[in-house]
Amino acid sequence: MKICFNQATTMKNSTLEKDLEYCEKYGYDLIEIRLDKLQDYLTRNTIIDLADFFKKNKIKPFAFNALEFITFRDEKGYQEILDNLKFLCEAGNVIHCKKIVVVPTFDVGGYTKQEIKDESVKRLTELAEIAKEYEVKLAFEFVGYPNCSVNRFDQAYEIVKTTDLDNVGIVLDCFHFHAMGSNLEDLKKADAKKIFIFHIDDGEDLPVGASRDDKRLWPGDGAIDLDQILLTLKEIGYDEMVSVELFRPEYWDWDIEETIKTGKEKTLNVVSKYFEF
Ligand code: ZN
């Protein structure tokens, strides 16, 4: 298992340069780069500088986060998605980052699950066709909020399975899995190869549908049954990577180095019971 840092964890005060420096110092294998942090980095550096950094260091890029709200968009909104997709595919070709997280849309109105499935499959298929030209894979991340059009594991997995493309898979995020009461039995039936990215985090103990990203906690500090999720992943043969992804405003105010160091320690404490690093 490889350990990865997701830049959402230090989102408010850090930069890509700082996150990279401390992730390398504390021995992370991988980083998930945020689109906004990349755009900010490119105001001071070039994409070649970033490629050089990865050549000289142990840490490697794993994925970009994220193309948000890919479904039910108007023409202008969808064009922005397409533009960002091409930008990330081209950047990814230079730095060898071959996955992009894609997120379904919120508050879409009274569509049925079938209509949401049809729209999601259609958009994923269109975007995947472009990504394929760059040998890039798309990881579809359901969000465990009641108003997200795709908010449970079974629903997202069904969409990915129906899309039936080698370069379309799923993001399993423990917070989102827990927040809308996704079922472990559904994860047990999943093909590990379709799990492209695994986000680890914990959360405060709120009722189904009531939790939000700011209630995330370090792995092991909250109410999510991470042991059962990890055991299930082991059972189905998933062992590629685990990415620590918090969105807690309190942690954003911490010293960046302390946050990155703590993220690794907390993740290893929980995950190394089941996986070797
Ligand atoms: Zn996530």
Walk me through the structure.
The protein is α/β, with parallel strands linked by helices and 277 residues long. It has a single domain, classed as TIM Barrel, CATH 3.20.20. It has helices at 16-25, 35-41, 47-56, 75-95, 113-133, 153-163, 174-179, 184-188, 226-236, 249-252, 256-271; strands at residues 2-6, 30-34, 60-68, 99-103, 137-141, 168-173, 195-200, 202-203, 216-217, 241-244. It has an eight-stranded parallel β-barrel with strand order 1-2-3-4-5-6-7-10, surrounded by six helices. A two-stranded antiparallel sheet has the order 8-9. Strand 5 (137-141), helix 6 (153-163) and strand 6 (168-173) form a beta-alpha-beta unit. Helix 1 (16-25) crosses helix 11 and helix 5 (113-133) packs across helix 6. It is globular and about 45 Å long.
